[in-house]
Structure formats: C-alpha cells, structure tokens
Design a protein that fits this description.
mainly alpha; about 65% helix; single chain
Length: about 90
C-alpha cells in the first residue's frame, strides 16, 4: 500500500482534516501504532487485503513517511504523484 493510495482513501472518505489532526497529535506514538498493527495482523486479515498491513506498518514506523502523508493530505485531492517537496 503506497502513500498515494492511503491519502486517496482518506480523501475519498472525507477524513483529511481529522486524519491530519490525529497524525499531528499522535506523531510521537506512530511507531507504537505500527507495532500494534503487527500484533493485530492475524485479527485484521479478514477485514483488509493481506498486502495492506505491512504497508501501513512501514508508513507508521517511519517519520519521513508520516511527514509525506501529511503534506499530501494538506495539498488536497488531485495532488497524487506530484512529487511534493519537503519545503512546499
């Protein structure tokens, strides 16, 4: 599961603002969230695709990925694949 698909799904559900608020408020706990996903992976398997959980773990475990996701959500719909720069 790549960054653009996660951002697109969040935007499709209309949860960009709450997701940004949640990600910013819980940034220090993101690594623990990734580890919790690994722990809950057997329970979550019937509800999501098998390949999506490791992608979410990678997203949550790396602060650079979190920053890219937040910038992608701030940029809004239609910004996928635009190569958002760190300063912009």
């Amino acid at each position: 599961m790549d960054l653009d698909s996660v951002a697109h799904q969040i935007e499709r559900w209309g949860l960009s603002a709450p997701a940004l608020l949640f990600l910013e408020a819980h940034r220090p706990l993101a690594w623990l969230g990734g580890q919790a996903l690994l722990l809950l992976q057997p329970v979550l398997m019937p509800f999501c695709r098998e390949e999506s959980i490791p992608g979410l773990v990678a997203l949550l475990s790396d602060e650079a990925n979190l920053n890219r996701l937040m910038r992608r959500l701030e940029a809004g719909p239609g910004s996928e694949g635009k190569g958002i720069e760190a300063g912009g």
